[in-house]
Design a protein that fits this description.
The chain is of the alpha/beta class. Helix content is 50%, strand content 11%. The chain has a five-stranded parallel sheet, sandwiched between helices. A four-stranded mixed sheet has the order 1-2-3-4, sandwiched between helices. The chain has a three-stranded antiparallel sheet with strand order 6-5-9. α22 (522-531) packs across α23 (542-562). It is globular.
Length: 634
């Protein structure tokens, strides 16, 4: 390099090696002291801003060349031009002359390292632009095939097959990305197993690979991510679990002018929480769409049949096995699909292919039966065997794996609390000490993660509560909720799992057991009531919320009898919350309607007494007493 007129630094998928890094640093130090070389950073396919950031800040104003693919002749022509010291602006004209050429083939490293930051202060979202710190993540486990894990085989992250049957949805999303709006948000809704997340991250992968976008999941909705020169896509899964934070983010984005093109893709079961956005925030919301099962419009199940065939082939080829004949004919598959609409969902088609590997007659089962068989074979049997080998309670690992679904993940501190709660009073299943749990296959990255996808978790949790916990199902559900790091988010997850079990897996849920356990104790009831005190509550949790709300009213009535000045406003608040929950019922009975009217009449009396007696109202409840009287005819 000492005799060269150029310093060319090639960044690969893993950046540059330590020796190349040392050579580049030495050359750049000489260049800083006595500029005499043309420095040309070259970004090969797979190179990321994180790799570039490891090099000297001296490079940030320098033009860098990017190869999206080594087969494209245009970047080679640009590299020759740079070596000939041609004007970079003239080279950019060559890029603009190519209709399909990405805009980011030649730009300064400063542009590559620019980023978008999301920070939080007292619940307020603060958006900023500056230098990024990390890339958005597109999870991909396809290189780590694991035939022994049903979680892996059914996960979208494993990419067992290509994305099949979603061409129209992808076209819609690409048109949205290409639209001129600087900032836009879109929601994809759909039931579990329809492939929302797989579609979203395939879209992200295409934007990143084909158009030079930075795209992926914004973990925790907090951080500083690199923004692509052409655009940035944030994917947010299950926004209804944290609706206040997502709404605050969208409100901030709507008010914040950004230099980068930004798209926010939300993936949820419903979009009710978006109805509470301000008019300003509504301006960045594009129309969403709902994802359902695979259908080609001609009722031939062609897409689902293609998915089944591809899954069958990959399940064997990934294990270096010869691919046997298909286990069922197109007619038999079509008949299975027609038995229930859920059989058209991609997850259940994959589950059928996996189960057919073990049981050739699997197509005689319906989707819930197939999932139960897979969970039994891949999870329950394995964990019972492991527990026995470690001389633990045979059911303890199954129970912990199941309960982890409620919290999303049970970290060490939550596990300590759960273990302690299960001992006072002692529950029948004995949980091992934390140091023993760390020696099991469940322990991963500081805790016990939930089984994924959701439908597997719902099936396992239902099994644990109905077949293992039995009459202690309510206690175990409450213990998991109480131990969760975020009880509000955990209750949202529980509501989603109950919905999946009831409406997709067609299984009754031991919700009454949870209600009975909660209302036995004032502290439990208050804890659950606080966790459920949110808008857009999952309908599956409504009976629990009504029971906890009634218990809260009873507790505040007792306190208000002794000291109305201190507890009257809180009683009014609990009556208001209870009435709202009752009113959310789909079809109220005559008795429930009368009860609701009585509650509202009682609320009016309390509010009048508070005003008449000049009771001091806490600031957090002032809104309730500033509002008008409840409508007599509500």
């Amino acid at each position: 390099m000492r005799n060269s007129r150029f310093i060319v630094i090639f960044f690969g998928p893993d950046g540059i090696g330590p020796y190349q890094q040392a050579e580049a640093d030495a050359a750049l130090r000489r260049q800083i002291k006595q500029p005499q070389h043309c420095v040309i950073p070259v970004l090969l396919p797979g190179a990321t801003p994180e790799h570039i950031a490891q090099c000297s800040v001296f490079l940030q104003g320098i033009n860098a060349l990017r190869f999206h693919t080594l087969n494209d002749p245009l970047p080679h022509r640009l590299l020759v031009g740079l070596l000939r010291r041609e004007d970079p602006e003239r080279l950019r004209q060559l890029i603009r002359a190519e209709a399909q050429a990405p805009d980011d083939l030649l730009q300064t490293l400063q542009s590559w390292l620019s980023g978008l930051s999301i920070d939080w202060q007292d619940g307020e979202c603060i958006i900023g632009e500056g230098q990024g710190e990390r890339c958005l993540n597109i999870p991909d486990l396809s290189a780590s095939f694991n035939a022994d894990s049903i979680e892996y085989l059914l996960s979208w992250k494993s990419r067992l097959t290509g994305l099949i049957g979603r061409e129209q949805e992808l076209q819609t999303l690409h048109a949205w990305a290409d639209a001129p709006q600087q900032i836009s948000c879109r929601l994809i809704t759909g039931e579990g197993g329809t492939g929302k997340t797989r579609l979203a991250f395939e879209f992200a992968r295409q934007l990143h690979g084909q158009k030079g976008w930075q795209a992926g999941e914004a973990q925790g909705l907090s951080g500083s991510w690199y923004t692509g020169g052409t655009g940035t896509l944030l994917v947010i899964d299950y926004p209804e679990q944290r609706p206040d934070r997502v709404r605050a983010l969208l409100e901030a984005l709507a008010c914040q002018p950004l230099t980068c093109k930004l798209r926010v893709l939300l993936l949820g079961r419903n979009g009710d929480f978006l109805k509470q956005l301000t008019q300003t925030a509504q301006t960045i919301i594009a129309s969403g769409f709902e994802l359902t099962g695979l259908a080609d419009g001609a009722d031939t199940n062609a897409d689902a049949w293609q998915l089944f065939q591809e899954a069958w082939k990959q399940l064997h080829q990934r294990q270096q096995r010869a691919v046997p004949p298909l286990p069922l004919t197109p007619a038999a598959f079509h008949h299975w699909q027609q038995r229930h609409t859920t059989h058209r969902r991609p997850l259940f088609v994959l589950a059928l292919a996996v189960h057919c590997m073990k049981q050739p007659g699997a197509h005689e089962l319906n989707a819930p039966e197939i999932l139960r068989a897979l969970v039994q074979q891949y999870e329950i049997n394995r964990l019972v065997k492991e527990a026995k080998q470690m001389q633990l309670d045979p059911h303890c690992l199954v129970m912990l794996r199941a309960l982890a679904a409620i919290a999303g993940k049970l970290p060490g501190e939550a596990l300590r609390q759960l273990i302690q709660a299960s001992e006072t009073p002692p529950l029948d299943i004995h949980l091992p000490a934390l140091n023993q749990l760390k020696q099991t296959s469940l322990w991963l990255d500081g805790g016990i993660p939930a089984l994924q996808p959701d439908l597997l978790a719902a099936d396992l949790l239902h099994h644990a509560l109905t077949q293992i916990a039995d009459d202690q199902a309510g206690a175990w559900q409450y213990c998991a909720l109480a131990a969760a790091p975020d009880q509000c988010e955990a209750s949202s997850i529980l509501g989603r799992l109950i919905h999946d079990a009831q409406f997709i897996l067609q299984r009754s849920w031991p919700l009454q057991a949870l209600i009975g356990w909660v209302i036995q104790d004032d502290e439990r009831s208050a804890s659950v009531n606080a966790a459920l005190a949110r808008n857009n509550l999952e309908r599956s949790l409504l009976p629990l919320a009504i029971a906890a709300g009634q218990k809260a009213v009873q507790a505040h009535e007792q306190l208000a009898q002794d000291n109305f000045a201190a507890h009257g406003p809180a009683l009014a608040h609990s009556l208001n919350n209870w009435s709202k929950r009752l009113a959310e019922g789909v079809a109220l009975t005559i008795e429930e309607t009368k009860q609701l009217m009585d509650i509202k009449a009682r609320l009016r009396q309390i509010k009048r007494r508070v005003r008449d007696e000049g009771v001091q109202v806490p600031a957090r409840l002032a809104w309730l007493f500033e509002s008008g009287e409840p409508d007599e005819d509500d």
